[in-house]
Amino acid sequence: MSEAGAPLLELRGIGKDFGSVIALDGISTTVRAGQVTCVLGDNGAGKSTLIKVLSGVHRPTRGELLLDGQPVAFGAPREALDAGIATVYQDLAMIPLMAIWRNFFLGSEPTTGWGPFRRFDSATAKEVTRRELAAMGIDIRDPDQPVGTLSGGERQSVAIARAVHFGARVLILDEPTSALGVKQAGVVLRYIAQARDRGLGVVFITHNPHHAHPVGDRFLLLNRGRSMGDFAKGELSREELTGMMAGGDELTELAEELERPAGR
Q1: Which residues cross the membrane (predicted)?
Q2: What is the pTM of this model?
Q3: What are phi and psi of 56, to 5 degrees?
């Protein structure tokens, strides 16, 4: 993808304090249309705080957030969503016993009729759900089946397709592969690629470099709220990315310690 033009979303020196605690400091990166920006870090690295800044839950203490090249300051998640920034959290905000199509339109149900005769247009909802999932390469057996009967990867795909349908331009995915096996994680990575290929700017939050590197175009590495670097894909091999995530020299020392012969 070309780097020409203004990014969809740009972070410039973003910092967030909670009293005397510095949760984020000096975080800068870009999110472009048709690209995936991966944000990597272990627990406590600041990934969750960054998600909340981007999605309008927290205002940054310092730094600047730009959308389409213009500074923005979201006061609430609804404002970020109205601007086209959608976040898919780990819990997916779905009701397991409800049908797939009901979950797809949860809170934004289509209606037919007018005034006191207005009612939920279930036929349209089912058709749109089936069509939008098919556009993402997802073939559901029956839109009436409870969403809880789907696999973890399939539920993630429904959440991604829902965000795309409701106008997301920037899609933030919070550890979408963390609780999945190898096969289901592969399913989700394909759907991330589908969203990217449809022109969205994707922010993929993860602690797994093996999941990030195949789909990522840009990599922001966090450690205790600070940036370890912001790299384009061509600047960082998978081995280098893994080494930076794993602690590099620390991991080598640990391996040498564990491999010492017994009795020494």
Answers
A1: none
A2: 0.85
A3: 90, 5
